[in-house]
Queue: 2 jobs
Job 1
Amino acid sequence: SLPVIDDALRVRILNAPLPHPESVDACALFEEALSWDVDALDAEKMAVLMGLLSLPLYRDVALIQWATSIEQGRETLAEQRAFVDGTPVSDRIGGVLIGKGPRPEVARLQAALALCRVGAAHAPVEDCGAALLVACGWLSWAMGASTPAAFYIGLAQAADPTLSMARLLAEMVDRGMLPDWVFTR
């Protein structure tokens, strides 16, 4: 299940001003977010994080960064921006999203999942709740937890059936596919 909604936090998040995504050092924010206390969140920072995660380009950057490092997050952001102009994403970057590469630090994934769960619980589904549920699904899947991943993905698909990342994740989970790194030490 998702965390219990704190109505006061939700109001503060929903009323927080959102800067243009290009004006935010997204990778620095994604890295900083890993150290946030989910029981004492800064509503404005959480709103910015949630807003960025609602955009597929930044969601993918965050997921890859949380599974790797800020350096790879910055590389991913550059590749994602180039992809918009028609340049393919490298296998090294894209491979992380399908579970290829070195095993992520579980603590990073757990911290990110805790934030995304709080965000999903407090977000309006029509704005960014479904996107945050997809992030919860991927983070769970990345830790080898396919049952929780399926739960979050199911909620995301119910909220927004058009999310292509949710369809891809659902297919991977339905096939019993787990990231390669869950089988390594």
Note: The mean pLDDT is 93.
Job 2
Amino acid sequence: EGVPLDQLAVILALNNGLGKAPSPTLGDALDLYLKEKVSGTARNVNKMSQRVEKVFRLAAEALKIDIYEFRLADLRRVHAKALRDYLLERGIKPSSVKRDISSIKAAINHALVELDHTHLANPFNKLPIPFDNAPNNDRLPFPSDVLRQIDALIDEKANLEVKLIWKMLKGTGCRPSEIRGLRPSDVDLESDVPFIFVRWHEGRRVKNITYSTRYVPLLGDALEAAREALHKTADSESLFPAYFDERGIDRLSTDLRTKFVRKVTQDPKHVPYSLRHNFKDWLDEAGVSEYHRDCIQGWARQGMDNKVYGSENNKKLLPQLAQELAKVASK
């Protein structure tokens, strides 16, 4: 009598054991995923955490549940479909719904393995998303006259780093994040074929390590821009210091969009990333094979894996890739 509750709990546990572990909940899956799978720079951790937490919050709204009370064992296909339909009814694009579903699916799969519940099925696996195969029209390539005006505006008013980045984007087809995150050690101008090495590092995570890690040859204006950037920042940690920190890509995107792109075009589908779509069109028009195009731009391609991307095999392709890019330059 008079034993404090915490001591009473210890006494009961010593005499009777802890009993059966409680069944894991959706909330447990979220917490475990955030703890064990979300990593990288502070910016990336914050971005990924917000994305995963958002979809679990929407799941709670769609299913009218408390995720810390709803057991994984009670999760059914009807719940997965209800969340999918709820997201679509909110006007979220199918491509974004697919990404959100992938996030909650990954978290649940991780929990089922790590919490020893592999006997349970994940109802989000192979969940069809209506219109999932519809083309993504969020971005369009710049019309030639618009691109010429943007080029002229950047040449006239941009700071040096923006000018050099823009030239390298036009000459390589890389993503803006890939160029702004280059370090002097990622640039080789002494090889028979000068190139940049797009790869993961703490200052910049590539979109997909397997496919986006690659060697890209440098020719023409892109080569000259890389040479000038390297000359000015040879002793620096980065090739473009003004945009290298974890918020650098946001500043670069904002600068390119507001100071240059929007001065020429108000079409919301015209954004700095549109230049990458222009480059793809140039490769197609020059007759560059799909295989070499994917190697240059870092697109996933069936049958190609890390034996090609980011490896010495890919590096051996540099002379061929340079010849393909020369076709683009000649046009």
Note: The two ends are 91 Å apart (CA to CA).
